[in-house]
């Protein structure tokens, strides 16, 4: 069944609100463990989002532990809501994190990293389809960011829920994912 991004946004925000803290923890752990099976561990520069707990997002804390345990360079972003651009910073022991007005945990400042240098991006999403298209929050931050990355950058969606068949209103410049990992399954896209 085809659904629009708007319909899917509403559906999955509602489904997320029904998840308990324990279930979020359990599903986040299953996703983190599944990531170990992906062919990404020879890369060095990993971009990850810090979870917005108020939106019941996947807890990326476990993925952060995986990355730091394997000595990867971890990159996090700060969003500018006027320009819709993200600035990327290397996560170090000295990085100070502060929630912005939208409850997004962000670095205050740090060592800037160019989008072109990032090899793997963990992409937040509300829903995705069998072709690797995703539905985000609709602000376009990740579309813009992913368009600045190289063609070789591996884009991995993280989702509590399984794929929809098809998103009806995909735009020409929407950048599809290479993988999407759910607690039950790894989806691979061409």
From TrEMBL:
GO terms for molecular function: 5-formyltetrahydrofolate cyclo-ligase activity. It catalyses: (6S)-5-formyl-5,6,7,8-tetrahydrofolate + ATP = (6R)-5,10-methenyltetrahydrofolate + ADP + phosphate. It comes from the Bacteria. The keyword Metal-binding applies. Its EC number is 6.3.3.2. SUPFAM superfamilies: NagB/RpiA/CoA transferase-like. Keywords: ATP-binding, Ligase, Magnesium, Metal-binding, Nucleotide-binding. Belongs to the 5-formyltetrahydrofolate cyclo-ligase family. NCBIfam families: MTHFS_bact (TIGR02727). This is 5-formyltetrahydrofolate cyclo-ligase. It comes from Flavobacterium frigidarium.
